[in-house]
Amino acid sequence: MDVLNFLWDWIVPFLIVLTILVFVHELGHYWVARRNNVRVEVFSIGFGPEIFGWTDRHDTRWKISAVPLGGYVKMFGEHDFEDEEEQTPMTPEETAVSFHHKRLGQRAAIVAAGPAANFLFAFVLLAGLFYAVGIPEPLAGIGTVKEDSAAAEAGFEPGDKIVRIQGEPIESFEDLRLFVRDRAGQELEFEIRRGDDDIFLKATPKPVTVEEDGGVERQIGLLGVTPDPSLIGYEPIGPFAAMGAAVERTFGLTTQILSALGEIITGTRTAEELGGPLRIAQISGEVAQGGMVNLIFFMAALSVNLGLINLFPIPMLDGGHLAFYAAEAVRGKPLGRRFQEYGFRFGLALVLMLMVFATWNDLVSLKVVDFFRQLVS
């Protein structure tokens, strides 16, 4: 029964999320390729042997393969690094539908369409989510209480819900922040809901000097608490506001990912935070338990992650192809086939090493390594 629960709670949500995101990514490649009259031979979800599939009227084989950890679109005329002298000459009809014989801009558009589809999908998910349920904002619940803060001195505890301050109703954490910010050094009475009880606490926000835009210094009050991530409210908004919020959130997710990677590269953050498929499966299961809203937001964040990673200039990834095309645009001719072959081999080795490293982090994080150590000790 534990195995069945594990499969249902972790593996099934992970495979559903991954399959949708891979399908969206590869559909971007497929759609732009078809718009540019490129024959698509295979559209595969997963790798390895085919489980089932069908062939459409354009002779594209759509299939589900045995290893559901990715996917690919195989286009007619892609380079396989054979010597051109050994290749069978194409007929004019084949040349017309060959990826390799398309203009540079067309090839670049086809390659870039995969990551672009992931960003667009994230925007659509977020816009629909914000319009349907509203913009998420933390309620006035307390997640942590900082040491030596006004809240700690007054007796606030994690899990408290602030109901009123000085008799004024408080709903969101932003309401709390704004109320406290303008009352530095003033003793305030807080009505708190702690479990099933309502209690009253008095706290005096500590004055702190901050520098605002334009270099102007201002004194504000700080209580010394952070929001409770489990207490989230939703503010209804219209369709255009939802689209604007989706653009802002998609951009925010992109900058957060880039910032985190930059901190790992510079050593500010540990590389142990890099996660692989096992950790994604764990998070997928945990998020799925929190409801559909959380799962959709997680899927949007993962879609941005997938699109962004694929744009990195690493051979084997879409960004590596685009880097080669950029060099081709500068040189006026493609890079040498031998150079591209070695580049893709290097990219494959790098991607495999990163996957092994991330999976090792997953095993350590999930304490699988400790489990096996205990078995042999």
Strand numbers in spatial order across the main sheet: 6-5-7-8
Helix-strand sequence: HEEHHEEHEEHEEEEEEHHHHHH
Number of helices: 11
Tell me about the biggest sheet?
Answer: 4 strands, antiparallel
Q: Kindly report the average pLDDT value.
A: 80
Q: What share of residues are in beta strands?
A: 15-25%
For the termini, the CA-CA separation is 28 Å
Please estimate the helix content.
40-55%
Given the C-alpha coordinates, what overall shape results? elongated
Structural class: alpha+beta
Number of domains: 2
What is the CA-based Rg, rounded? 27 Å
Count of DSSP strands: 12
Low-confidence stretches: 368-377
How is this structure best described in words?
It is elongated, with a radius of gyration of 27 Å. The strands form five sheets. Strands 6-5-7-8 form a four-stranded antiparallel β-sheet. A two-stranded antiparallel sheet has the order 1-2. Strands 3-12 form a two-stranded antiparallel ribbon. 52% of the residues lie in helices and 21% in strands. The protein has two domains: 2-132 and 263-376, no CATH class; 137-233, PDZ domain (Pdz3 Domain), CATH 2.30.42. Helix 3 runs antiparallel to helix 8 (292-310). It has helices at 2-35, 92-96, 104-133, 150-154, 173-181, 239-266, 277-289, 292-310, 318-331, 337-365, 368-376, and strands at 40-55, 61-75, 135-138, 142-145, 161-165, 168-169, 188-194, 197-203, 206-211, 217-222, 225-227, 232-235. It is of the alpha+beta class and 377 residues long.
